[in-house]
Amino acid sequence: MNRKSAPGLPFMKMHGLGNDFVVLDLRAGGAAPLAGVVARIADRQRGVGFDQLATIEADDQADVRLRFWNADGSVSAACGNATRCIARFVMDETGRDRLSLRTDHGVLLAEDAGQGLTRVNMGPPVLDWRAIPLAQDVDIDHLPIDGDPVATGMGNPHVTFFVDDAAFVDLASFGPAMEHHPLYPQRTNVEVVQVVSADEIILRIWERGTGPTLASGSCSCAAAVAAARRGLTGRRVTVNVPGGVLRIDWRDDGVWMEGPTAHVFSGVLTPEWLAS
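The structure corresponding to this sequence follows.
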């Protein structure tokens, strides 16, 4: 699908465990929409609605180039579930079972995990305070924030809190307060984690620039890495999010994420709506 196939702007609607995306295939040409248009498309009443928007572009060093935007129109360097959804789409399109995908976080490898599942290597976690980024040099395993959270970078910033019962956290107020904490100059994704066992956690998510989501690949990776660094789990865990289950495996070559994907429908944003 590309912009030349129909008047207006063709798109695909995809989701990974309810973490939903609008995907624009620009490999045949065309430009990504401006931030204001991205935010309009994200409107679930007057647009299409999504947690993130992604574009697929041609690349001379990887199979495809991916770019990501949050629902408020801000740019994100990484989006794990969207990467998995697009990887599955391109693998189905090409008949291949392995791909390379260039993002602002680096070149990520994806592979068919069997049984309809898709696995992506999100790369090594970012564990330097400057690169996460944080506003000052602090102990990233014990941030000077109430609740003693952990800081991690996965191509985007994360703060992870460990609690006895994730269901009792008022995410609607806690999430935005932490997203805009002054220690995070570019804002942050917020994870609330309940450890079930050495290989299982429960995760609730507040995504930077979007709000509460049913799932998030990068947040699941960051939460798993933070739990392992704290010694609360091993490096391979099942992550239970409101939308389902992801499996995270922090290996020597990066953090691998595995789970289901869905291509829900394809459509076209009309020229009239785009110009309004």
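Residues 80-94 form the longest helix (15 residues).
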